[in-house]
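Fig. S4 source data, part A: sequence.
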Amino acid sequence: MKSREVKRILYAPPRGIGDIMFSLPLLHSLRDAYPNTQIYVPIPEDKQNVLDLVGFLRTTNRYLPKPSQDSLARDRWQASVRGDTKEKYRLEKLIYEKYLKGESFDLALIPKGFTIDGINCDNQICEEDLRNAGISQNGSHMVDRFLGFVDYLRIPKIMSFDLDIDTERNATLSSGWELNSGKPYAVLNLGASLGRKVWNERGYSEIASWCLDNGLNVVLVGDKGSFDKALSIQATEGRVLNTVLRRGYAFDLENFACLASKSSVVVSPDTGVLHLADAVGTKVVGLYGPTSPKKYAPYNNKDNIVSRFDDDKNVGNIPSKEVIKRLEKVVQR
């Protein structure tokens, strides 16, 4: 399509922070090819700040519902947790059709196996269209999978992970306290969107001790589900800086990006903040169990992973010595 004909693009990726990070090269490619276009991304209201990180994305007229707001969203989340992909996408289609009904776009890119009924858009491209065009998606990393739309549209590929944030400033906690470390530090992220992705407390404690004994301060971050674990790690290794709050993260996403960008390394399970750290150019070590590193590894640190995916898929069984071995290579580069 000619640039002058495209004024409004709908892009409907999966909803997580990591999915937006994986989409950055596609989004920058679209912005470069269609400079006068507005790109709209449907997302729940509490994820608005993910779009703000990119800087040139807009929300659709209606936010997508959270599981607590609509039974369709609740059922979709439950299908996702139990790994029922077919049912998840069936419900996803119904949610889009309900919440985007009547909206108009010149082009819609949907990295799923369906198009969206009810929107006014004659040019909808989904995964089936990519397959029919000979653009393979099987086994691809998510970044490359999303870039399939670039190949389909025959526009220049821009391999940029740039975000609209100033990572040079110091990170500020929600309390207003500014973190300004004069010593190199490692960030250990304890949380993830799904409990089965989370590493064990003993492993984090041993990693924290190794970092501290090797000249790195340690900052613990995590969601509210990590609160008790963080306290226990702090009790075992009192030299850590524990920022985990009972009610959630002590950093918003922009401040986490600032924290990560100034760190020597971020250690985290496969979750959104791992991929945010990767996007801002940080050295990261990803811990993988139930998810495939081939598809979901931190794209700019693909070799810096420790995985059980090809074994028992249990991230809790990752030995700390394997993480330390990876850290020795990453920190000393």
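Fig. S4 source data, part B ends here. The mean pLDDT is 94.
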